[in-house]
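Its record is quoted verbatim for completeness.
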Amino acid sequence: MVRLEIVFLGTSSSVPTVKRGLTSIAVVRGGELLLFDAGEGMQRSMILSRIGFNKETKVFVTHMHSDHVVGLLGLLQTMSMNQREKQVHVYGPKGIRGFLEACVRYLKFGLTFPLYVNTVKTGLVIDEKEYVVRAALAEHSATTYAYLLEERTRPGVFHPDKAAELGVPKGELWAKLQRGKSVKVGDKVVKPRQVLGPARMGRRIGISGDTRPVPRLVRFFRGADIVVFDSTYSDQHAEKAAENMHSTAREAATIAKAAGARLLILTHFSARYEETDRLVSEASSVHPNVVAASDLMRIEVPYPKQ
């Protein structure tokens, strides 16, 4: 089992406030760090959260607006100042490569580690042994991608009594069966399904980026355990949400409910809202399980109940 935790490094939109930094979300999965957006100064929240700068790291940028991408420069420089040597992978819309290359060149800071920059398209972004990350187009004033982290299914619960009945000796062969591999005992083959329960689902986390509440995001986030969604405005400013191509908290809840998400986390709040109680109330009238993100808030993501 791998520990999976969401840490909110910044939850404000456009401009920082006394309580909120600019948008950035860290997903810590075991010893790996997946960052979604990098608002200016986000590395300070990383320090306060004790995340560290030397984990295996991937950064996913939703779109090329300054409050989501400028913090990458400080992050890369801080990593270099800490003498990081491990490679970093950055994924983002068209323009991300030129932006980073120009900034590194003109700001004249050298990197102590390999940096790989990748342009995102709709569909599969990365394909790892234990999980994948997918992207879907959101609906904003710039090309914007929503992301979905989806763990692969795990083998079912191992039943040692069944293995013993089938004559499988305890030790290496049991371990292979637990990993979902068939083993040979004498002249017979024992298959994992004979000693394992049903396959266990992995966890799924959806992150919207800045967006209007478009139907394709319902399809994209279908069955997610957690959806983190743009909730820039309250109902009172619904016209501004449409004009600026953001979502209200109620609209975020409508998407999360239609997608069947277990938990909706509101974020990316306009600086006009010092408190988020009203936004949570509006969203809660639609979705039964809503929380408002705050800077440095941590959410542990459990495995789904089988």
Observations:
- The two ends are 14 Å apart (CA to CA).
- The CA atoms of residues 83 and 145 lie 31 Å apart.
- The chain has two domains: 4-154+200-300, 160-194.
